[in-house]
Amino acid sequence: MIVAGIEPRAEMVHWWFATAILVLGLLFLAETIVGPEVWARRPWRRYLWPATMFLIGLLLWPVMALYTNSMIHMVAHGSWAQVLMLSGGAELGVVRGKLHSRYWRLTSAGALFVSGTAFLVHEQNGWFFARAAFLHHALGWTLIVAAVFPLVQAIRPRSVAAASGFAMTFFVVAVLLYCDRDSAAILGHFSQFAGVPHR
Amino acid sequence: MSADIAHELHGDREKKRAATAATSARVRIVLALGPATAAAGVVWAFVQPWRLTLLDPHGQGFWWLLAEPPLYIVLVGVLFRVLIARALVQDMEDAGR
Question: What pTM was computed for the model?
């Protein structure tokens, strides 16, 4: 339950995560453009996106604990936290040289797939109930479809198409999260049960 | 100089020129990423000025004053340009030498 006035509103939390995901998108896109060799020329740069991914996972734990609207919300946020930390942690292990298999990239595919499924499962309302419901459905399906990109990367690590698709996924997710409002209409639709609409 | 060597030198020069052109295109894209992101934030701020509560701060709570999504995007773009893109371009040029 959100304690009015003390905790930020859910839409604000979505915007903060959108910002972190935008950072990830820029890092992935830049790495794709310059290529892995140039990207790895400075050791600190190799740690940037895995550490950001891990941090996002870490920050999802307070979201899980503090925004417990229902059991299913708690399970969804908790599973996001775990899969993002796993993906970030595995990539950190790869760049550090502790892990060697290219198939660790499958953790990113798992992270996107689990995140997408969690979005869909914890949205109880239909697409046009309100903007938040629409965005949950759109985010869920976007992430599930986009899980194919890291899957391809695990098999063909030098695939530019897969790397570009993976990077662009994060821009799409960031835009969708920035569009979120706690209660607002979507394409002229707004359920009478969705509260007071805001712009 | 024999014709073979001259052709070889010409071919090498062409290859080097093509590689330099590809690198400079990539450099331009990397340098444009940050400003393009910041520009997107500025456009959003103009389209939906009410998203910036700092423009009318009276009566706003702490969280509403902290939540300025268009400014976040501008900040991300600027930081990317300053902290990431500059060093990346330097490394691309070093790698191209």
Answer: 0.88
